[in-house]
């Protein structure tokens, strides 16, 4: 086994940062997320490799919160369009958990498959190498295993880190992983160590049959009842590692300007507001229902899997106490309306 001591993490990140922009789990003030190692301030930031997870998922690394698409300049009757240059700097996401690795896999499905390739997403994704940190101690709101995610074997990871006593096992899985391994091979040693066992999950849910059952629950009164506490603040969608809704807007001054896209939320009334004034999801209940139908039914029908990785962030962040685990249980118990 390839192994390194915990005290060498910063050396390893420093080495990787010589050839890539490395994003690491960091506590920055009251905010935790994946931040560039270049921005690390030892007087203000704390590396948090040993903590369970960060609040803000790393999806912004492949899908930025705001992204310019092209510039335009109207010259008489002609409009000159200049596409924005897509950045190609190599990036490493170091210490990402299985739930978030799976989320990037789902984003890949959306932006890279079904005959459509989003060039902006692809350019970033091609440059990303994933160093995943296997989970052995699920948190109180984690339920990834119930949603088909293996916390110990994150699929699509280029390297898997496995925490052991006083150190980590470094396990390359892909060609990209082998490249990283060569960069730090002098910091690794061969050592046989005992791996931890996966601790039990505090929370579990049975998703089997939910997607099929939801087909008969579109008009069920449960949606109105359980959407009542929802404040449609959208925090669940922004904290979710798999939500990918975006809006396209324009900024212009005189005859020139640019078009950009930015994250949006299906929980907002304006998201489905049409030019003529009609809105198919005017009410909170309709937006609440759509969120769960998309997560648990619609995405499954198109891609064969629910759009939830069981990270538990939405449960922690929701100010109204909406709990997706409880919603799945209620759906399982519900009887179709006559």
Descriptive overview:
The termini are far apart. It is globular and about 65 Å long. It has one domain (2-333). The chain has helices at residues 9-16, 98-112, 119-126, 175-184, 210-214, 222-227, 235-239, 284-303, 313-317, 324-333; strands at residues 2-5, 21-28, 31-36, 45-47, 66-75, 78-83, 91-96, 128-133, 159-164, 167-172, 189-190, 246-253, 256-263. It has 338 residues and is an alpha+beta fold. The model has no long low-confidence stretch (mean pLDDT 95). Strands 1, 2, 3, 4, 7, 8, 9, 10 and 11 form a nine-stranded mixed sheet that branches. It has a four-stranded antiparallel sheet with strand order 6-5-13-12, with no helix packed on it. 30% of the residues are buried.
Give the helix/strand layout.
Blueprint: E1 2-5, H1 9-16, E2 21-28, E3 31-36, E4 45-47, E5 66-75, E6 78-83, E7 91-96, H2 98-112, H3 119-126, E8 128-133, E9 159-164, E10 167-172, H4 175-184, E11 189-190, H5 210-214, H6 222-227, H7 235-239, E12 246-253, E13 256-263, H8 284-303, H9 313-317, H10 324-333
Parallel strand pairs: 2-7, 7-8, 8-9
Antiparallel strand pairs: 1-10, 1-11, 2-3, 2-4, 5-6, 5-13, 9-10, 12-13
């Amino acid at each position: 086994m390839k192994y390194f001591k915990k005290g060498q993490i910063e050396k390893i990140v420093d080495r990787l940062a010589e050839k890539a922009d490395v994003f690491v789990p960091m506590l920055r003030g009251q905010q935790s997320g994946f931040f560039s190692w270049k921005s690390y301030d030892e007087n203000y930031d704390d590396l948090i490799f040993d903590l369970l997870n960060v609040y803000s998922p790393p999806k912004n690394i492949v899908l930025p919160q705001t992204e310019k698409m092209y510039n335009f300049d109207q010259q008489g009757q002609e409009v000159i369009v200049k596409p924005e240059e897509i950045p190609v700097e190599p990036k490493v996401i170091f210490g990402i958990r299985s739930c978030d690795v799976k989320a990037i896999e789902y984003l890949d499905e959306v932006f890279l498959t079904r005959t459509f390739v989003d060039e902006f997403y692809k350019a970033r994704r091609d440059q990303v190498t994933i160093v995943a940190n296997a989970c052995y101690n699920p948190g109180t709101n984690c339920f990834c295993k119930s949603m088909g995610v293996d916390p110990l074997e994150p699929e699509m990871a280029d390297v898997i880190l496995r925490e052991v006593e006083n150190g980590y096992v470094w396990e390359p899985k892909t060609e990209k992983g082998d490249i990283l391994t060569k960069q730090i091979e002098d910091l690794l040693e061969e050592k046989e160590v005992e791996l931890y066992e996966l601790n039990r999950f505090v929370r579990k849910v049975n998703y089997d049959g939910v997607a099929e059952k939801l087909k008969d629950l579109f008009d069920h009164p449960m949606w109105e009842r359980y959407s009542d506490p929802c404040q449609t603040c959208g925090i669940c969608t922004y904290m979710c590692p798999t939500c990918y809704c975006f809006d396209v807007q324009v900024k212009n001054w005189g005859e020139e300007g640019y078009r950009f896209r930015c994250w949006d939320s299906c929980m907002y009334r304006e998201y489905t507001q049409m030019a003529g004034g009609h809105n198919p999801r005017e009410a909170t209940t309709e937006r609440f229902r759509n969120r769960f139908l998309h997560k648990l039914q619609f995405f499954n029908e198109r891609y064969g899997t629910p759009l939830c990785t069981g990270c538990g962030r939405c449960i922690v962040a929701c100010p109204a106490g909406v709990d997706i685990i409880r919603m799945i249980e209620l759906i399982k118990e519900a009887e179709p309306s006559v």
